Amino acid sequence: xxxxxxxxxxxxSQYTQxxxxxxxxxxxxxxxxxxxxxxxxxxxxNPKGIILSGGPASVVDRKSPYPDAGIFKLGIPVLGxxxxxxxxxxxxxxxxxxxxxxxxxxxxxxIDDNSDLFSHLPGxxxxxxxxxxxxxxxxxxxxxxxxTTNTPIAAISNKKRKIFGVQFHPExxxxxxxNQILSNxxxxxxxxxxxxxxxxxxxxxxADIKKLIGKDKVVLGLSGGVDSSVAALLIHKAIGxxxxxxxxxxxxxxxxxxxxxxSVFKDMYHLNLSYVDRSKRFxxxxxxxxxxxxxxxxxxxxxxxxxxxxAKKTKGVxxxxxxxxxxxxxxxxxxxxxx
Length: 339
Description:
It is built from 10 helices and 13 strands.
């Protein structure tokens, strides 16, 4: 990767998306990848740092998800969050056990070492914990940098190897100094630069699209919503008229919506837009149907049929353009990257 990147290994945490967002809010690019991504593949990505997310599993269980232990030999700074910290300890020779009482909610963290990860932080502050296991023995070379009343080893550090772990969630707003902790990891431990912006991301995306598509053609279903609109404009900036957008009027649009879509995308942005009025066809299929779920399926089925019919009218199309939210990309697959 030419840009500085933080890789987030996803162990199925409900906060994984939030970790990525917090990193990007610090103007550092981040991407989420499956926890079991091979160390060799990670090395080729040349990340500035690696964050191991939390997760619902327990490292005490035999079938717990583990990353490739080779990531700790890459010389890349690592931060383990909650389950991620426990994984670090288990793989590097420490010990983890079940707690008698689960630590959940706001707890007071007391700092034992305010250098590196906890630099410029007060002696104690409120953080958000959610775990049923705890570290009883740290790996060789690690020392405790923070504790709570119920968790003697709540944060660890190996300064030489730049490997850190916290038994709480710095990414959530309930942790008072969470952003400063992440910032310390990004800039002090990883040596990242705060220079990534959405503007640079747009430029990179357009360049990537140009490289992928070349002189081929793309067809895209444009609804006028955020997802398809962003995708359409990015692809248009990359390949111009080789993108054909199809806007289907199903007879269920808001008043003036079709005219607005045509005005914005065809007249203002000059997209190659085809307006397809199939309202009569949709309404005929929906006639007499009262069940909402059945209506939804009919609309979806008819949309696919109409779109395919229209798409076939454009010869030489090799790509289908589709816009979606980033969480959809992650949540549509398991943390292992499988279906």
